[in-house]
Structures are given as C-alpha cells and as structure tokens.
Amino acid sequence: MRIVYLLAFFVVGCFAGNHEKNLIFDVVFLIDGSQAAMPVFDNFTSFIGNFMAPYNVGLSGARVGLIVVAPDLDDQAPPAAQLNTITSQANLIATLKLLKNDYADFDRTGQVLTYNLRVVSSFEYTSPTAGYRSNINNHLLAYITSTTSFYTDPVPMAQLIIESKKYGLITVGVGENIDHDKLNTISGGSPCTFLAKTAAELNDVIKPIQRHIMFADAHNGNYCHKK
C-alpha cells in the first residue's frame, strides 16, 4: 500500500511539473530599487530566477518583463525588459545580473511606483509589438519591495490596473519595515500579499504565488481582483 501511495505522489508531482512547464502567461516583475533595497537586492534577483525556473521562459511560454522601481524620477531607468525581450531562462538570469549595476541607484528612500505602474499599463508596454499577448488572459504584475515608502500614493493607479484586468497584481514585502495593510491595498487583496520577515525567507513564498498563477490559468486570468 505504501508503494501505491508513493507512486501516486510521484505521478501527481510529474503532472504538476509538466503543467507548470506548459503554462502560457505574461509576468512583469517590479523590483524595489530604493535605498532600503540595497542590502537585499541580490536576494530579489535570485528569487525571480528561482521563481521562473519551473516554467518554459521564452516567447512561446512564460514571458517575463523587468522594471527596477527607482526612489525618484531623476533616477528612474527605462524598463530592463519588455515582454518580448527575454527569450530563455538563461537569458533571464543574465539580465537579472545586470540590474544592480545598470538599472538600480539605491541613493534615496521612497519609490516612484505610481509612475512605473503607469508605464507597465501603458499602450506602449502592453502593445503586441512590446510582447504583451492580448490573446491570453493570464497577465501578472509581481511587485517585490523592502519598503512601503512611496513618492506618491500608488493605490489609485494599482486599483485602475486591477479593474481594467490588464494584469493581476501580487505584492511581496521583505523585512520588518513593511506596512502589510498598505501592500494589501496595492495588491488584488490580502491573498495576493506575501511577506518574508527576512530575505532568506523569500523562497518560502514561491510555491504559494505559483499556485496563484496556476489558478489564474484555469480561471480566466483572475488573481485576487476585488469585486
């Protein structure tokens, strides 16, 4: 009987793994580049690489966009990747390695998240020529941050994106100085807000978020949209 159970778990695990590999979705990672993020920025990029490892990263599978959120507009770099920039998992890892030196500044507190939410939901970023696929429903913004200090309040813009259903929105807060309630108002709801008390605990939230992607794949791209 024990052998039967082990075989059953093996089959279910293989099925889930194959299903993840075959998922077709768009995800844009918005990554805190403020002063607070400097000590944990390498953990952020490692988290993204680990998070995307089970998927078929590329133009025919899981498309990945990358934006580093600067503390102010003077320091804001353009998107590091549109949704048609990254062609493989290896290409993703190589691009992630460039972010710290080429796209982040870390010189001030706060974040221009509102501005970057406008960018990622703009016609230019969501056009077919930029890689956004209007023929699929599963689109996700994943915002990773070590602070809830903002240049302007990002909540109204976040709610507009959620209501438009251009993307679902998940927030990941790292560290002790995170306002959980603030992240809840930015994300699609408390089930789409995740907290890691330390950067070392970041990988603990990978599986729960991956389950959201799988759920959205089966439910018309719905994440935690407020009704």
Automatic annotation (TrEMBL):
Keyword hit for Transport: no
Taxonomy, superkingdom: Eukaryota
InterPro entries: Innate_immunity_reg, VWF_A, vWFA_dom_sf
VWFA domain sequence ranges: 26-209
Keywords per UniProt: Signal
Signal peptide: 1-16
Keyword Signal: yes
Name of the protein this chain belongs to: VWFA domain-containing protein
Coiled-coil stretches: none
Gene3D superfamilies to which the protein is assigned, alphabetical: von Willebrand factor, type A domain (3.40.50.410)
